[in-house]
Amino acid sequence: MASARSEIYLQETGFIASFLATLKQSHNSLCRITSMMVTISPLRQTDTEALASSQEASRYIGGNGSAALLASFPFFFTNETPEQWTTYESLLYSCLRTGDDKAAHFFLDKLAGRFGKDDERVIGLRGLYQEAMAEDDGALLQILREYDEILEKNPTNTPVRKRRIALLRGLSRLADAVNALVELLAASPTDIESWAELANLYASQGLYLQAEFCFEEILLSTPNAWNIHARLGEILYISAATSQDQVGALSESVRRFCRSIELCDSSPRAWYGLKLVREINTGIASENLIATIERDPQSAVKSSGSDNSNRDLPVPSIKVLQQLREKATTILAEAVRDSKHGTKPESSDLAFIADALKSSTMSQER
After folding, report:
1. Distance between CA 130 and CA 268 in Å, rounded?
2. Mind listing the pLDDT tens digit for each residue in 289-319?
3. CA separation for the pair 58, 91 (Å, rounded)
């Protein structure tokens, strides 16, 4: 009798030890995925990073049956954290991006089970999943009609409104997307994400003044957003080609790039903007800011006296512009060299800059 009890006790002890080991392994796996997703936003991941996240998710879901085992003991999950559900949402994005539909559906079900199918954010994520599964434009139009039905019942459902705008843009209905964004911003004027989307839509249609206004609205809420300063500098640089005050537009572009670098000195886009800001293609000949000032010194004075309050500062001197260009070239060359040697991760921006620097060097040799 005693030996039988001992055997039962040993079996129970072995089961508990096995379960705790599985629980620890799953916890460590989730922590590893969480740390990875916290450091890299799913919206900024490269293809390689998104694939790595998706592979981590697949191992977590079906690696050793731990998910099914843990689901049988829900009382162990009373200490859930917000990061856990943020991780599930991030993994949902990564899985959809890499075509892992089953894993994406798994995380969608997890979120729906925790927050309910009628939760606004869950409804938006479900719409995103359905868009990814759509096989043609007809299916996308059906999803668009479903969005309209949801908004008729609840016009304040912001996630669905944003998914509808994204779908309109994907269907190339840019005018409808702009109108929907304007309506959304009228109800929520501090929505930075919507301002950025509207700015990109305007820029894609060549409406640079409107795009500039949208980026300035973002900077009212987040004045230290270095990436927005760099993006605004790009818009000013592009719009200078058709601006009546080319010198003023390019000078303001220089200041925006410099401000972006002041806030983040490792921004390749801002450094590359400083390198290019001297040059502007007028459609007739290749002009540059230094040549314009040298040819017509009064243009700098006229620009400084412009009525535009954003461009009321003096135009940078030729010496300053040359020094900025030389500094930018040096910094970019070092960044490209570091990425090739593996000391810094290579990005699409650096790859483009490397080709541009090579082309610039070849043109100068000719």
Report:
1. 36
2. 555 555 555 555 455 444 444 456 677 777 7
3. 10
